[in-house]
Amino acid sequence: MLLGNSKLGVKELFTKLLHEPLSMCRAFHQKFLVIIDALDETESRGNFLDLIKHSFPMLPEWLVFFVTSRPGDSVQSRLMRYKPCIKICSGNSDQQNFYQQHEQDIQNFLKERINFPCVNISVDDVFEKCDGLFLYAHYIVEELKEALASGKKISNLNNLFPGDIEEFFLHNFRRVYDHVGENIFKKLFGCVVVAPSPLPVSVISFILNRENSNHDEQQVIDAVSQFLVLRNPDQTLTFLHNLVPAWLTNDTKAPRKLLICKKMGESSSPCTSIDVKLKDYVMRVAVCFMSQFGGKDWLELVFTCLTNYHFIERRLLSGKIEIYHLLQDLKLVKGCLDVGDKKKQDLLQEIAQYSQCVSVALFTG
Questions:
Q1: What are the Nephrocystin 3-like N-terminal domain coordinates in residue numbering (predicted)?
Q2: For 44, which of 38, 79, 106, 365 is 20 to 30 Å away at the CA?
Q3: Contact, 285 vs 1, CB < 8 A?
């Protein structure tokens, strides 16, 4: 959301969150590694590539970046000119044995997690079934572990996995659908699909209460755990992999009863009660959504919120980094206002300056 939907650009975020703080740090004798995974999957890939090329050299030399990405001309052509240095390890998809290391990585992953002497299948059998997908390898490992723990004898992998990952998605999403019912299935997965960032786990209890469901919250969490990952540090949930929502929202793959329509997921309806963490989440993302996708009436509502003392106070108290989210919202709404609304623009600018001062006082004193 920060990089794709905000007018607080990538360079500004880089300056505020990386360059300025790190420039004040003392020099370190040892290297620190930062991994940027799946660069090719970010919506603002072009801007981020330019940032890496032009701005990352400004960072301390003790900070080392390891970037993973599927092969792509845009990624390689920009990073090849990176200074002071960069090593391109991806090669070209036309080259012989291009995926050899990738295949070896999957085999190593399988060998580490499956005790093959205890099953009547080989690592080659499982690897062939994975079809080069680490995600499918993960699912196969989990299913095999569960089968072995229950004492089930496995002699034919096709008995557990009759098809490819598309068949796996179809079978297991149907299982979740039958377990939780249509309303919970559509509402829960619809919310996660359209959410710009991981949702608070409390969204599950909120949906269950709203739908007057008799389902136990933990049972629902267990049912969807194959596809949603629970992040314990901040008690949020999101999709295990981008392939999951991609399948759910593809009308050529997911059958009609399982299909999640993004437009339906973005529709709203009134509610009378909401969990505190969920309320903080909604407050954090609502401004961006209403400013960009709503009309003038929505923009007026957003302006009213951003000029409300209690709204600003609650957001500032919800976390140290929230000041950056609030500043980006103020800048976003200021840019959406008409040229003739100079008084409103000036007011938002004053609030931004005041909020920065208050935030410093709150978290340094």
A1: 10-70
A2: 106
A3: yes
pLDDT of residue 232: 78
How far from 220 is each of 23, 202, 246, CA to CA, in Å? Answer: 46, 12, 22
Q: How far apart are CA 124 and CA 219, in angstroms?
A: 35
Give pLDDT tens digits for 255-310: 999 999 876 544 444 444 455 566 666 666 667 767 666 667 777 877 887 788 77
Q: pLDDT value at position 82? A: 63
Token pair 């209403």: residue = 290
CA distance 84 to 314: 44
- Are the CB atoms for 187 and 211 separated by under 8 Å? yes
Domain 167-258: give its CATH code: 1.10.10
Parallel, antiparallel or unpaired: strands 236-239 and 228-231? antiparallel
Helices (H), 181-306: 182-194, 202-210, 217-224, 243-248, 262-266, 276-293, 296-306
Residue 365 CB contacts under 8 Å (≥ 6 apart), including other chains:
none
Cis peptide before 84 (omega within 30 of 0): yes
Tokens of 250: 């593809």
CB burial string 151-186: b at 16+ within 10 A, e below: eeeeeebeebbeeebeebbbebbeebbeebeeebbb
Q: Which two tokens stand for residue 342?
A: 């100079």
pLDDT band at 254; cut points 50, 70, 90: very high
Dihedral sign for Cα atoms in the order 269, 217, 248, 239: positive
